[in-house]
Amino acid sequence: MELKTYSWALLSAFVCIFLLGTIFGFDLSYVVDNEYDLKRVLVIGFVWLSSLFFVAVKDIEVIRLSLVTKLCLSSFFILATCSAFYSIHPFWGVVELCNLVLLVAAFFLFVTSIRITGRDRLYLGVYFGFLFFSVLTLVKYILFLVFSYADEQSFDIHGLLSGYVNVRFFNQLQVMIVAMLLLPFCYQDLTKFKRVSIAIISLHWAVMLQTEARGAILSLISAFCVMLYFITADIRMRMARTMFITLLIGAFLWLVFIIAIPYWLMGSIDLQIRTASSGRLDLWYYVLTSMSEHFWLGWGPMSFTWAESKPLPNAHPHNSIMQILYEYGAIAAVLLVSWAFNLVYRWLTWIKSSQSISSIPVTYAVLSALIYSLFSGITVMPFAQLMLVFLIAMQIQCREASFIKVQVWPKVFTFLLVTVASLMLLSTYKHEELLPALFPRIWINGLIGY
């Protein structure tokens, strides 16, 4: 198989699984019990099939990681393995590591495929992919809104979106999609779609306001403020004006169609101005107080799912750093957070020095996702994980990177490793030990509904 054929097939399959797991998720949920588990199955199947066909591709070159990255990631996996085997739930620790193996494999597959497609065609394809996904999602959203008007039936934050067992899983995708829809303002070949992007981004803001996605809105605004320091004055003014206009239009749409019209039709609205932390501060305090018992190696990967005496039954603490601290220990947390912070900072300074305008939306998307991971489970949920990996692979493509040619045996080893990890994950579906876990981690098991 030619590498170009493989690359376009992989990127097309990536778009297809997102459409199948979201837009058509409810229609396909009969395959498994719910849309969440469907997304996990699609991700596992996507990575496994991609690694299978990867073996048959000729003249493969994979990215050469820097020495610092190799040392950091290898040290993290060694520490994570030790933490897993010393934990109370070693089996589930290995399961979590298997999921990380799939994501690492997906990263290398994405980087290899993105490199051969070329930047111009890649940006065009990615923009229209995100635009198509947004249009389909928002059309369904508007239809549900119209139906609620016609039936004079009120709706809550989950009532207008389908394909997600929890609306927060869509908000996790939104923080990356909104950033990528800014491509027409940074890439010359897409300038004619500026107005289209303004309309779609405005609707995304309205949806975030309707779903009370405080963390998503805060993440997008915070990441944008950070980005302003690293971009030139003219680009800064252009981007700031665009963000302000879209946010203003989105707020207006929210006030009219979510607040005013429902109040006029039904006489009441389901509006709650939430000022509390939704229990997140309690979860984070629990992590800080309980990690002292297993300070260096943590309680083990995925162990927060069964943590005793935690204030809420969530399977993760809604903060990526707190999750690493609790499950992997202080050494792994300092190592991984320092490496990630240094990597993002080098990306930002590279944008400032090279004035690479076209890479701004990609960096903005990754930064927004990382900030949102401090308030949500964006590093836990299947589609959010995979999209973040894809955007990091895109970010690598924006900069100069060295590649090395690989022979057939490393490709075969990768496929066998992905196969073992996939089988390990699939074998845990509806596992009896997951019954006490009422909230999603690897699987949701159809135990709860929203």
From TrEMBL:
Q: Does the keyword Thylakoid apply?
A: no
User: InterPro entries from the xrefs?
Assistant: O-antigen_ligase-rel_domated, WaaL-like
Coiled-coil spans in chain: none
State its location(s): Membrane
Q: Where is the O-antigen ligase-related domain?
A: 205-337
Instruction: Report the principal subcellular site.
Output: membrane
Membrane-traversing stretches: 41-60, 67-86, 92-112, 124-149, 169-186, 215-232, 244-264, 325-345, 365-391, 412-429
Which terms are listed as keywords in the entry?
Answer: Membrane, Transmembrane, Transmembrane helix
Q: Has keyword Membrane? A: yes
* Topology relative to the membrane: Multi-pass membrane protein
Per its record, how is this protein called by name?
A: O-antigen ligase-related domain-containing protein
